[in-house]
Amino acid sequence: MAEYSFVLKKYFVASHIHNGEDIHGHNFYCIGEFELDKVEKVKKEFDKTLKLLDYRILNEIDFFKEKTPSTENIALFIYQNLKDKIKVKKIEVFETVNFSGGVK
Ligand SMILES: Nc1nc2c(c(=O)[nH]1)N=C([C@H](O)[C@H](O)COP(=O)(O)OP(=O)(O)OP(=O)(O)O)CN2
């Protein structure tokens, strides 16, 4: 049976230390897929969550003191921040055009 969903996409800028590399920044790109809901409400919550990461050194955020700020853990942070407010199907975070990690 067909299932409706919709997708939001947004950039955020942040730096991180992970994978044995020195601190470096990225224009991260996040794609969120959501179950049908009021689009304005989902946009508001998605923007609010990504603002928690924008212009931050990710390793300084409490969540990333326990988990390295890899793409899949950044996606997990976004997912966990949203899941009690809106119905999230999938979060994918791109670090470069060729590489992303996600959760669903
Ligand atoms: N479990 C994870 N492992 C790795 C992650 C990650 O997010 N989770 N990330 C990386 C790299 O930072 C990521 O692969 C980007 O690598 P980079 O060489 O900077 O960029 P590209 O892959 O786009 O470059 P190519 O030239 O296409 O290889 C590693 N491990």
UniProtKB/TrEMBL annotation:
Keywords: Lyase. It catalyses: 7,8-dihydroneopterin 3'-triphosphate + H2O = 6-carboxy-5,6,7,8-tetrahydropterin + triphosphate + acetaldehyde + 2 H(+). InterPro entries: 6-PTP_synth/QueD (IPR007115), 6-PTP_synth/QueD_sf (IPR038418). It comes from Thermotomaculum hydrothermale. It comes from the Bacteria. Pathway: Purine metabolism; 7-cyano-7-deazaguanine biosynthesis. GO terms for molecular function: 6-carboxytetrahydropterin synthase activity. The keyword Signal does not apply. Its EC number is 4.1.2.50. It holds the Pfam family PTPS. This is 6-carboxy-5,6,7,8-tetrahydropterin synthase. Belongs to the PTPS family. QueD subfamily.
